[in-house]
Inverse folding.
C-alpha cells in the first residue's frame, strides 16, 4: 500500500499531505489552545452560540490558526472564503464582498473570510475591508505570525479581537501524532505501522510546538518503512533521525542530563574557559534546551560570579537575552555565544553574592528592625514632629558628596556585608570604600570628642 493511497485525496490526481488530511473538522476534535477553547471561554461560547466575531489569530507557525478558522466556519455552517494578502488586491476584495452579499441574500448564510498572513495586507486592502467588517457582512478571521499591533492599521485592529495561539505542548503533539498513526481513513493507519515512544518523542522535539512540521516529519519517517513487509514496518528513533537528517543528542530537559549540562556550562564560565563554555552552550542548544533558560542562567551568573569585578557583564547578559528574543533561532544563538565568551573571560568576584547572602542571614536573625529616625521619610507635619528625618545630612551639601552618618539600624551599626576583591573594577570600588570608611571612622571619632 502506498503511503498516499488512502482516502485523504483531495480530488482526482491530487495528493494531500498528512498535515492537511489530518486537520480536524469539528471543534470536538481540535487539540490544544485550551486557554482559548476552554469550556466557558469567550471563543467556545461564540462558536457554540453561532455568534462569531471578527478576530485575528496571532501565533507561531503550525499552531492551528488555519485549522481553527475552518472549524469555526464549519461549526456555524458559514460560507467560507479564503483570501491571499500576497496575491490579491482591492479588485479581488470586491469579488469577495459581492459573493458575501449573494450568500446572505439567496442562502441566508454568513460569510467567514479567512486571510492568511494578514500582516502582509497593505493599507488600501485593509481600508477596503473596514466597512464590511463593521457592518457584519463578513466575519474576518486573520492569521499572522507577526505582532498585529505593528502590522495592522488601528481602525481595523479596533474592530477585531486578537486571539493569541501558543505552540502545541508535548502532550498535545503526542495526541495529534498518535491519532495520525491510528487513523485508517485520513491518517496512516492503513499502513499498520509500529512506532516507538522515543521515536514519537524525537518528532515532537524536532517540531518545537509546530503540529504541521510534526506531521510532515511523521509522514517522512513512514515513507522510509512503508515498502517493507508489514511485520517490519517499524518506526524507531533511528528511522526518525534518518528522515529528519538530524541525530537526537542524549538529553532530557527534565532529568539528570539537563542538570549535568547546565552545571558544566556554569562551571566552565566560572572557571574562565571560553572554549568549554561555548561547547556546553552548543550542546544544550543542539539538544533542544530552551535558549531563554540558558540566557536567564547567564544573567544570574553575571551577578553571582562576575558581580562588580566587571559591572558591564550584567548588561551584556541582558542584552544577549533581548537580542535572542528579537532575532530568535537560528541567528539568535550567536548573541548567546557572545555573552558566554564575555562572561567566561571577565574578571570574577562572588563578593556581591556572598555579601547579599550575609544580608539575608542577618535579616533572618534580627527580623524587622526599625528604620533610624533621621533617614525616614517625613511628608507630613505630624511625622516631622515625631522626629522623622531630623538631623539627616544631605550628602551633596558636603565635600565630595560624602558625609558619614549611620544608615543601618542601631543593632547592626558598623556591620560590613559587601567586601570587594582586588579583581577588575572591584579594585577601584575597594579603594573608594576604604577611603570612605577611613574618613567615616575619623569624623565619627571627632564627633565623640566634641560631645560633652
Amino acid at each position: 500500500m502506498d503511503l498516499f493511497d488512502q482516502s485523504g485525496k483531495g480530488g482526482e490526481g491530487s495528493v494531500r499531505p498528512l498535515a492537511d488530511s489530518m486537520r480536524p473538522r469539528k471543534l470536538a476534535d481540535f487539540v490544544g489552545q485550551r486557554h482559548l477553547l476552554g469550556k466557558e471561554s469567550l471563543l467556545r461560547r461564540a462558536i457554540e452560540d453561532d455568534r462569531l466575531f471578527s478576530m485575528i489569530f496571532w501565533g507561531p507557525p503550525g499552531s492551528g490558526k488555519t485549522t481553527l478558522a475552518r472549524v469555526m466556519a464549519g461549526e456555524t455552517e458559514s460560507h467560507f472564503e479564503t483570501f491571499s494578502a500576497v496575491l490579491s488586491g482591492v479588485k479581488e476584495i470586491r469579488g469577495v464582498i459581492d459573493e458575501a452579499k449573494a450568500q446572505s441574500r439567496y442562502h441566508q448564510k454568513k460569510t467567514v473570510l479567512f486571510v492568511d498572513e494578514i500582516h502582509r495586507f497593505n493599507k488600501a486592502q485593509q481600508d477596503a475591508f473596514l466597512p464590511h467588517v463593521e457592518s457584519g457582512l463578513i466575519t474576518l478571521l486573520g492569521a499572522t505570525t507577526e505582532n498585529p499591533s505593528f502590522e495592522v492599521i488601528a481602525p481595523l485592529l479596533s474592530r477585531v479581537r486578537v486571539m493569541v495561539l501558543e505552540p502545541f505542548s508535548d502532550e498535545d503533539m503526542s495526541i495529534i501524532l498518535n491519532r495520525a498513526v491510528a487513523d485508517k481513513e485520513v491518517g496512516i493507519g492503513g499502513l499498520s505501522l509500529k512506532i516507538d515512544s522515543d521515536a514519537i518523542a524525537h518528532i515532537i522535539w524536532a517540531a518545537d510546538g509546530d503540529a504541521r512540521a510534526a506531521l510532515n516529519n511523521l509522514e517522512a519517517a513512514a515513507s522510509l518503512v512503508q515498502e517493507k513487509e508489514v511485520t517490519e514496518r517499524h518506526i524507531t528513533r533511528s528511522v526518525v533521525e534518518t528522515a529528519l537528517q538530524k541525530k537526537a543528542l542524549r538529553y532530557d530537559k527534565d532529568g539528570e542530563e539537563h542538570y549535568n549540562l547546565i552545571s558544566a556550562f556554569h562551571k566552565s564560565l566560572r572557571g574562565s574557559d571560553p572554549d568549554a563554555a561555548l561547547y556546553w552552550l552548543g550542546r544544550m542548544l543542539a539538544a533542544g534546551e530552551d535558549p531563554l533558560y540558558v540566557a536567564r542562567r547567564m544573567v544570574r551568573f553575571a551577578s553571582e560570579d562576575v558581580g562588580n569585578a566587571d559591572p558591564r557583564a550584567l548588561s551584556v547578559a541582558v542584552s544577549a537575552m533581548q537580542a535572542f528574543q528579537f532575532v530568535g533561532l537560528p541567528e539568535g544563538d550567536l548573541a548567546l555565544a557572545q555573552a558566554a565568551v564575555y562572561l567566561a573571560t571577565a574578571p570574577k568576584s562572588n563578593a556581591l553574592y556572598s555579601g547579599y547572602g550575609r544580608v539575608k542571614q542577618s535579616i533572618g536573625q534580627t527580623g524587622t528592625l526599625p528604620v533610624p529616625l533621621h533617614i525616614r521619610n517625613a511628608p507630613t507635619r505630624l511625622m516631622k514632629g515625631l522626629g522623622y528625618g531630623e538631623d539627616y545630612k544631605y550628602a551633596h551639601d558636603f565635600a565630595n558628596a560624602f558625609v558619614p552618618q549611620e544608615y543601618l539600624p542601631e543593632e547592626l551599626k558598623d556591620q560590613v556585608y559587601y567586601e570587594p576583591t582586588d579583581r577588575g573594577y572591584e579594585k577601584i570600588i575597594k579603594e573608594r570604600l576604604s577611603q570612605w570608611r577611613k574618613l567615616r571612622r575619623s569624623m565619627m571619632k571627632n564627633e565623640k570628642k566634641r560631645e560633652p
Q: What stands out?
A: The domain at 256-345 is CATH 1.20.272.10 (Zinc Finger, Delta Prime; domain 3). Residues 373 and 388 are 5 Å apart (CA to CA). Residues 1-14 have pLDDT under 50 and may be disordered. The chain is about 50% helix and 5% strand.
